[in-house]
């Protein structure tokens, strides 16, 4: 085998390997209407991620004193309020990351935050005021997620 044909063979192998690695990265199947509900679910999760970031940053603003006056300072609040605020400051941001990535654990953490907020509002109204509006909104978001997840699961065969 000559040096020229050996170089051509090596170059052809390099081109083929490069093409194969790019094909592995790219989305080989174009988006179709077959997975419309999955796309809607991912969009919903991304919107919830942005909302979770906003809520988490708001709770951190309460902890650090960026929100509220001197009378509303974190250290002057009851221990139950402080505990709940720190809990939501952390878990909302963790949920936001998982939701944005559309991972199963992100949805589980987000569902935990939704249920936790509803329980705190209903069972412990002294902490955040017991707003039925918040409970209703959380129930509406949970229902929307469950409906989208169900529809997305129906469009994929088992």
Would you kindly provide a written description of the structure presented here, covering whatever features stand out?
This protein is mostly helical and 158 residues long. The chain has two domains: 1-30; 34-154, no CATH class. 77% of the residues lie in helices and 0% in strands. The chain is built from six helices and no strands. It has helices at residues 3-25, 36-64, 79-100, 104-123, 125-128, 132-154. Helix 2 (36-64) packs antiparallel against helix 6 (132-154). The radius of gyration is 24 Å and the shape is elongated. The model has no long low-confidence stretch (mean pLDDT 85). InterPro entries: DUF6163. Keywords: Membrane, Transmembrane, Transmembrane helix. This is Putative membrane protein.
Tally of strands: 0
Query: What's the gyration radius in Å?
Result: 24 Å
List the secondary-structure elements in sequence, H or E: HHHHHH
- Beta content: under 5%
What is the rounded distance between the termini? 52 Å
Q: What is the arithmetic mean of pLDDT?
A: 85
- The structural class is mainly alpha
Tally of discrete structural domains: 2
Number of helices: 6
Q: What percentage of residues falls in helices of 4 or more residues?
A: over 70%
Assembly form of the protein: single chain
The largest β sheet comes out as: none
Low-confidence stretches: none
The outline comes out as: elongated
